[in-house]
Amino acid sequence: MTDENNKIRVLLVDDHPLVLDGIRSRLEDDPEIMIVGEAGNGEEALQIATERKPDIVLMDINMPVLNGIEAAGKFAELLPDIRLLMLTMHDSREYITKVLKAGAKGYILKDVSSSEMLIAIKAVYQGKTYYSSGVTDILVNESSKKEVPLTDREKTILQLLAEGNSNKHVARELDISVRTVETHRRNIKRKLEVKTSAGLVKYAIENGIVEL
Q1: Of 6, 7, 95, which is closest to residue 59 (Cα–Cα)?
Q2: DSSP β-bridge partners for residue 83
Q3: pLDDT one-digit tens code per residue, 160-192
Q4: Which phi and psi angles does 207 have, rounded to 5°?
Q5: Residue 114: what are its φ and ψ, rounded to 5°?
Q6: End-to-end CA distance of the chain, in Å?
């Protein structure tokens, strides 16, 4: 039997009790894991982590009071020795990028198997980074995309359009004609190889031109 002093101390953080129950049941039988607490939001997680000093915080992103991205930044500032592993349903690049920039050491999706979840925890505990296969695919695909050379004016127009403004509003805002806005819009779509307004919004969000 593994001595408790040698076990990986894990804090579980999710605002859904049923999810916490499910995660706990997947981890508690492993002789190398010891669950030292559970929290329902990032603020509570920080309080518990300060008291119980877990090695790993397994944390969701969407939570009340203090979400996972905000909490990751706080952990990096206040408790830098604790390693964060995000467990979430979000597989979009903007979430992945924000969490990793905030200091998380791993990112796995909630549909991973119990064995992969354990592998991820142990990898992060050993100082490695770990991304589930779906996350790795997203990062690889995005990094392989060529950078689209939008001009500063095109980026400004894209930002305004992605924020939901009409062509007329953009024209008034920039003191240009509606026809000029329409021309820029066509050129931006051509450069980005998108055909819809939704495609423009998606690109603007994923590339930090507008904030979520």
Answers
A1: 95
A2: 56
A3: 998 889 999 999 999 999 999 999 999 999 888
A4: -110, 15
A5: -60, -40
A6: 47
